[in-house]
Amino acid sequence: xxLREMESEYTSRKGKKVLIVYAQxxxxxxxxxxxxxxxxxxxxxxxxxxxxxxxxxxxxxxATRNDITGALSNPEIFRYGIETYEAYxxxxxxxxxxxxQRKVQEADLVIFQFPLYxxxxxxxxxxxxxxxxxxxxxxxxxxxxxxxxxxxxxxxxKLALLSLTTGGTAEMYTKSGVSGDFRYFLWPIQHxxxxxxxxxxxxxxxxFGLDDSSEEERKVMLASWAQRLKTIWKxxxxxxxxPWYFQE
Amino acid sequence: xxLREMESEYTSRKGKKVLIVYAQxxxxxxxxxxxxxxxxxxxxxxxxxxxxxxxxxxxxxxATRNDITGALSNPEIFRYGIETYEAYxxxxxxxxxxxxQRKVQEADLVIFQFPLYxxxxxxxxxxxxxxxxxxxxxxxxxxxxxxxxxxxxxxxxKLALLSLTTGGTAEMYTKSGVSGDFRYFLWPIQHxxxxxxxxxxxxxxxxFGLDDSSEEERKVMLASWAQRLKTIWKxxxxxxxxPWYFQE
Lengths: 248, 248
What we know:
By secondary structure, chain A is an alpha/beta fold. Chain A has helices spanning 3-14, 30-44, 80-89, 95-106, 123-132, 182-195, 215-230, 242-246; strands at 17-22, 48-53, 109-115, 159-165, 200-201, 205-207.
């Protein structure tokens, strides 16, 4: 690439905003290192990086009446989805939800960094999804999947990327392995949640087999994540439809 | 069936213990009604029914250091999975986890009653799974899937059943529908969690399309749940392997 190209690429990255939603208790963990590497690499590129460190924030995962300030639209029967939809429109959601929605709204790319718990995200991160991605903000009915609200403009969705670690090995997460293809467990999160809200989904970054990995193997995984991030803005999103998950 | 058969069946059900793990905020909701119907029907059969009403209990979903009483085995770097495994063996888990483990241990059947949130369980229920089903109690390595610990005896697993409600219609949750076959989103919960722990999984009870259902349609769904529960102890578990989820 010549100097002019380099300049133009630097400029295009420079204004980018990245939100990392991070769900690990221990800063010295491998998830902590993956998060650190991402902050460093993306900052070096000139991106603005924000981290929502859910455990440090003691983020509330429970979806309750406390998420709505002031009166309910139906005080007789509490319906979480309806009340938060109404509260969103009236700007009556509780402040921790508003703050996360603001971060999502500003981000060009949202990276979710977490250890796989039961083929899914840890409860604290599930609570972030349940509470932050409410109707009115992230989608409407109609207004979901390719019409979901989390887009930068009519053509381009915000980007989302799952960076996760597993205890089990890569072999366990294959079609013939005991835990099935890893794409199977990505479906509810990537398609049912992120795509539903209009995100374009980048390929997941999976660091497999942490339970038995050597120091050397971990270094390789960290380096490959850092390397990937160097060209992350050039990546094409996956085709987030059933064939990607179930037929390849 | 003749009188002797009826007697023997009554006796076989009579001693059965059922745990309902219930994750809905509002008692007057449809989930509340499904839970009520199950308690009534199973009690009428002579079963002992226990309900863990997670929102009323304000159940803690976050997996943190607070789950271990006393000293950590490694105070330098906190690893949740390892620390809870050690704490389980030393009987040093916090009391709310122990209480739920005791209920699971005693149950012949565990029913999970919840509204589908983002193709999965609400965070409060995810937290129950993350915290209660810890290594040592629910599985070990090795000691998972068909060798998972939650069995009644060497041959027979405890039974588990997901009873859930969706906003979207049944048509949306088909292979050609926008949200894909409903079996796709069941994989992480039924296979990756319940089967992993040794449960035998009964077919799910899905009440679809609540967003637009009439009073009459809801009555039919409630009645069909009550009807199914009458013969629940005769049901064969599903074959919890990839073909059930992805190839039918």
